[in-house]
Write a structure and sequence with these properties.
The chain has 12 helices and 15 strands. By secondary structure, it is α+β, with helices and mostly antiparallel strands. Strands 5-4-15-14-13 form a 5-stranded antiparallel sheet, sandwiched between helices. Helix 4 runs parallel beside helix 8. It is globular, with a radius of gyration of 20 Å. InterPro entries: Beta-lactam-related (IPR001466), Beta-lactam/transpept-like (IPR012338), Diverse_Enzym_Activities (IPR050789).
Length: about 375
């Protein structure tokens, strides 16, 4: 089974950045039928309701970017934001939904899913299903080629040394070739494609953002736990932290591996609940389900040959040099998706956008890091 010609054309236009604004909203909120999906059950427990913060809403913002100062309304309009949730110290400061989106709308994660999947590696280590973050990936998944000597830590940091081109709009890029493999709905197709990639440097020798490696996270976690990633997420986190809705996640084929690097659909408030879980150091009812220090390690940059890499365990580190962002990190997805976490300021900020192009270098917008800094400063 594979995608129909119509669905394939729609998928291609999405990655090329060729959808009209209303069409983009429908794509981000609907079941496109591009890939099979699996449910992430919220279970039957009570929904965690956030109390309103005493701030009574967001104070006026001064977003300083490119020598100009913008406010909240500039940001929402210019950056095509459909949903915004701000939590401070576990309480709700703001929840804004527009462009037809409601608090109950399931929104496409894009690469936010990478950070959620990587967090499950920490859960599996804490439970003993995965021995160590420095285990070779081949301990869990029979990968060949350049991955024979790559560790799980190197996969999470995307410094495997494997050659990769992530350009979404280049039909010859590795990312687009992998998308073609996904479109075949072929069990094992992703692992086969990744195994055939050559090494550009020894493991750990270079950083390259690599969506294919984020898919290996599902392969490792599913092999180590004997559970599909969706079921593991549901049983360990989603059904235990008061989520409001079931979520969905793409899989490679019916009954096959979860596509852990993208394709999750969840409500905005549930993305915020997940962010609060991470901010709380992975604690549920006072019990830590992540290894000690995991949050800070996962959200920290590292160095290769003296170069600072603004990336942790599939979490981005803001590149804006502003002291109020110190220690913060964020899940990011194309078209402007964010779960921003600032432990020092007790902040979680979820942004759901429908921007014009996948990458920020090809569109005009207000800098998101400057927006997060403005929120932190306004609520200090």
């Amino acid at each position: 089974m594979a995608l129909s010609a119509t669905a394939r054309a729609h998928l291609t236009r999405f990655y090329d950045g060729q959808l009209l604004p209303d069409e983009m909203i429908r794509t981000m909120t609907g079941d496109t039928g591009w890939f099979p999906t699996r449910i992430i059950s919220r279970g039957s427990g009570p929904v965690r309701a956030f109390e309103d913060h005493p701030a009574g809403g967001l104070p006026p913002l001064a977003i300083r970017d490119k020598g100009r100062v913008f406010d909240l309304y500039d940001y929402l309009a210019t950056n095509a934001v459909a949903g915004l949730v701000v939590l401070k110290d576990g309480r709700r400061v703001a929840e804004i939904c527009q462009r037809g989106v409601t608090p109950d709308t399931l929104w496409h994660s894009c690469s936010l899913a990478k950070s959620i999947a990587a967090t499950l590696v920490g859960v599996a280590i804490a439970e003993g299903a995965i021995g160590s973050i420095d285990d070779p990936v081949t301990r869990y998944v029979p990968l060949g080629g350049g991955y024979r000597a790559v560790t799980l830590r190197q996969v999470l940091r995307m410094c495997s040394g494997i050659r990769w081109n992530e350009d979404y709009v280049d039909p010859t890029s590795d990312r687009r070739q992998l998308l073609e493999v996904q479109a075949r709905w072929q069990p094992g197709g992703i692992i086969g494609f990744m195994t055939g990639l050559p090494a550009a440097t020894p493991p750990g020798g270079a950083w390259a953002y690599n969506t294919g490696e984020s898919y290996l996270v599902a392969a490792v976690v599913e092999a180590a736990t004997g559970m599909r990633l969706t079921d593991y997420l549901s049983s360990r986190i989603w059904s235990r932290i008061g989520m409001a809705h079931d979520a969905r996640w793409w899989c490679e084929a019916p009954g096959a591996m979860t596509i852990s690097g993208s394709g999750m659909n969840a409500a905005l408030s549930d993305y915020a609940r997940f962010g609060q879980f991470v901010l709380d150091d992975g604690r549920i009812d006072g019990h830590a389900i992540l290894p000690a220090g995991w949050r800070d390690e996962a959200g920290s940059p590292y160095e290769i040959d003296g170069r600072r890499i603004p990336y942790g365990y599939m979490w981005w580190v803001p590149e804006l040099d502003d002291p109020i962002l110190a220690g913060s990190f964020q899940a990011e997805g194309i078209y402007g998706q964010y779960i921003h976490i600032n432990p020092a300021q007790g902040l979680v900020v979820v942004v759901a956008s429908a921007r014009s192009k996948p990458g920020y270098k090809r569109r005009l917008e207000i800098d998101d890091d400057a927006f997060f800094a403005a929120i932190a400063r306004a609520l200090t």
